[in-house]
Design goal:
By secondary structure, the chain is an alpha/beta fold. The chain is built from 16 helices and ten strands. Strands 5-6-7-8-9-10 form a six-stranded parallel sheet.
């Protein structure tokens, strides 16, 4: 994103008086390689292709704020790779990973992670260091760094079903695992911020596994660890949280974690989300990413976006899809979001 776009996003995120409604989309490797006609392995491993692909997105959609912007990621592989998970790469889709923690009790012997040396982390940091001046010289900025959240990482290490069972059968060991993964998330975000340079003043945490918990389990296994991550960074930084699973049981409590922005599922109505969060979170969404964003017509995308803008008045809102941009979302549907926001601005009193 451009520096002025970041200022617009930041003002909306902090709900500054008179802040304009931005249009921002989480764009990463599920969508970018296919859109630019590149293979995933080339996108991940060729820094020049990565730079040109992100530059093309920024230039082709100047009205849209790409979020978090110039994100160095290899699907969801970076954090689990640092713990020794086997990573499975393919040419036409993001990688997967195999769990490494066969018994939850074995967390006792797991060592912490050093982002400067472990797994794919140092490779990603090198891209930030090598490309950051080039990005700035092109007129863009790197304002936000991103990481998978502590429960997401724990589920990568243990397996999703196994991790959820562990919360019932061995909660003490789960807390030890979450202590480890939370420290890793903080260290990884900090290492990225250092590598990307002084332009960073925001974090994005992505953790859908939290949405698999009950309200009580959220309070025990998620809230304190997410809060710790937020508290590890300056109070004036923008802190965004992505979870397009079921956050309904604890929407109100999410507002007390320390995040400024919530990118949530289209399955929860925008007005219900506003009511439950008490207006304390700027809501980033929530046009359906697949049913409408990918499979719908431009007219359907525009109608859905116009409905959200009309009912919220654009206040406390960053217009987006309810999640990240899904593979296959076409250009014309993205431009329909732009048209909806421009129409809303034109219809508003000066």
């Amino acid at each position: 994103m451009r520096p002025e776009q970041w200022q617009c996003f930041k003002a909306a995120a902090k709900q500054a008086p008179g802040a304009a409604t931005p249009l921002a989309l989480i764009v990463d490797s599920p969508w970018i390689p296919g859109y630019v006609g590149a293979g995933h392995l080339d996108y991940y491993m060729d820094p020049e292709l990565w730079f040109q692909a992100n530059l093309r997105i920024a230039r082709e959609f100047p009205e849209i704020i790409p979020f978090p912007s110039w994100w160095v990621e290899y699907g969801m592989a970076i954090e689990p790779s640092a713990f020794g998970c086997r990573i499975h790469f393919w040419g036409d889709q993001p990688p997967a990973q195999s769990p490494v923690l066969k018994r939850i009790e074995d967390v006792e012997g797991m060592a912490g992670v050093n982002p400067l040396t472990d797994g794919l982390m140092p490779l990603a940091l090198r891209v930030y260091r090598k490309q950051r001046q080039r990005i700035l010289d092109a007129g863009y900025t790197i304002p936000v760094v991103a990481a998978r959240g502590p429960l997401c990482l724990a589920a990568f290490l243990r397996g999703v079903s196994e991790f959820l069972l562990d919360t019932v059968e061995n909660p003490a060991a789960v807390h030890k695992l979450l202590e480890l993964t939370t420290r890793t998330v903080i260290d990884w975000l900090s290492a990225q911020a250092e590598a990307a340079g002084g332009t960073v003043e925001g974090i994005l945490v992505l953790d859908d596994i939290v949405g698999f918990l009950s309200g009580a389990a959220y309070r025990e296994f998620a809230h304190p660890y997410l809060k710790r991550i937020c508290e590890a960074f300056p109070a004036d930084w923008v802190k965004a949280y992505h979870n397009d699973a079921n956050v309904r049981p604890f929407l109100g409590e999410l507002a007390g974690v320390g995040f400024d922005v919530l990118n949530w599922s289209h399955k929860i109505d925008v007005m219900q989300a506003r009511e439950k969060t008490g207006g304390r979170l700027c809501l980033m969404g929530n046009v359906a990413p697949l049913e409408i964003g990918v499979r719908g017509t431009p007219a359907a995308v525009r109608a859905a976006a116009e409905d959200i803008l009309a009912r919220t008045g654009g206040r406390g809102l960053i217009l987006s899809v309810g999640g990240g941009v899904s593979p296959g979302m076409p250009r014309e549907n993205i431009l329909a979001l732009v048209e909806a926001l421009e129409g809303s601005r034109a219809a508003s009193p000066a």
